Amino acid sequence: MRVTGTGHAGMRFETTGGSVLCDPWTNPTFFASWVPFPDNTGLDWAALGQCDYLYVSHLHRDHFDAENLRRNVSKDARVLLPDFPTDELENELRDLGFRHFVRTRSGEPIDLDGGLRVMVTSLKGPGDGPIGDSALSLDDGTARIVNQNDAHPLDIPELLEFGAYDAHFTQFSGAIWWPMVYDLPTAAKREFARRKRIGQEDRAMRYIREVGAPNIFPTAGPPCFLDDELFRWNGLGYEGVENESIFTDQWEFLGRMRELGHDGGHLLLPGTTAEIDGPAVRNLTHPMSDAEVERIFVDKESYLREFAERARPVIEAQKAAWSAPQPDILRQLKEWIEPLMKRADHMCDGIGGVVRMDLTGMPAGAPGVDDDGVLPLAFDFAGREIRTWDGEQARYRWTIPATLVQTNIDTGEVDWSNSLFLSVRFAATRVGQYNEYLYTFFKCLSEERMDYVENWYDAANDDGRDIELDGWKVQARCPHLSADLSKFGAVDGDVLTCTLHNWKFNLATGRCLTSAGHEIRAEKLGASD
């Protein structure tokens, strides 16, 4: 099995059963803040995109690069589709022209052409997107690998049922905005960042030990920040500029592995190739000299400054496309988000109060805007409304450029955590601990996502109970998005309809009539009499 690095979590595998392209990301994302590190723009993406199979692990934009997928990846490729609770990933890929899908079930191997065996392990909890994350296992008879990317926590015993792995491609760096954007004393921010880096390394090492592969390829991080106002967030080594970045790079992590006695680490750069022959890695070749490789990491600031100049036109073009904030932005937010608040009892109750959002750069004279061009808003989760802030206590406060919020409104961006917040183009304060409900809410700005997560929370303690509906014993939760069928189930003959999203099931066979998969557990009462 031959692997070619394509940057970040991206790679292409040449197997006995065909080529598999994974997470091909190259364009700046998250409001032009994240850029793949090292530079992968010089790769022959058109050639890389002529693949037999495409695997996109999840919809986060450092994995799902719509422009690259549209331009360069063959639409004849068969997509290895993770088993997610919603169809968003499939729908977005279909919008780009992909038509051939291999539907997987989480943790279940599939035999493909040419002796290629694959398994996609999917994560489906609210912290995973909430539409999911996933890992890919491949076995072509010459090698067995697992591409973990961002998928954690994984069920390692389930993963190992695929077999012992020869190579493990693992995330080792972070994807979060804490503590970088928070209003904290400098010493505290540096200490929290240090702890975050160590925690991420420790998590990666635990996975490495549990999976037990002899060969480790650190992937899925870190990005780099090439916009001038964000450059300080680059991890420039533990003694780097301001020392407030949470990001560890590949060079540092491989050094940490060696310190801990693991000598099986390999550096996978964009364009690096290697052959995985069982437990042996042969012919690992970088696309540049050893001295040039070392310069990327040892003289990192200089490398990044040069990269920033090359990337400046692309970044400025993206910034120029952002929306101008409109005077009625409060009305737009109310119309979109207040109905979702009313569907989100678990999350609203978990947040339990007011979140203040100060929108900066608002047009002068707009309703509620102060002399500094700031519109202070209150997201009142207890009252299920959005309004102008009237001075009340708020445990959480964000200061955000209004242009970013307006852009998300105009594009219908349903996941602000993985767009606006990961951009690190905002400031935050909070009293107390991180609130999972708050950031999960802003991942779920669509009815489908909100309903899924609310039902997920509602079913968190469900023990597989059944209910009775019109002469049938039926599982209590809809297989689609876990809706309570005692509330939303309607039976007509032997067909059950979940009225929340109008999904239909044949109770006699258990088959879902709306989509592939999603079988239901049911039996006719009195059928054994």
From TrEMBL:
Transmembrane segments: none
Domain Rieske per the UniProt entry, residue ranges: 474-529
Any one GO cellular component localisation term in the record: cytoplasm
Keyword GTP-binding: no
UniProt superkingdom: Bacteria
GO molecular function (one): oxidoreductase activity, acting on paired donors, with incorporation or reduction of molecular oxygen
InterPro entries recorded: RibonucZ/Hydroxyglut_hydro (IPR036866), Rieske_2Fe-2S (IPR017941), Rieske_2Fe-2S_sf (IPR036922), SCP2_Rv3818 (IPR057330)
Keywords for the protein's UniProt record, in alphabetical order: 2Fe-2S, Iron, Iron-sulfur, Metal-binding
Identification of the protein by name: UDP-MurNAc hydroxylase
Parts forming coiled coils: none
Entry keyword annotation includes Repeat: no
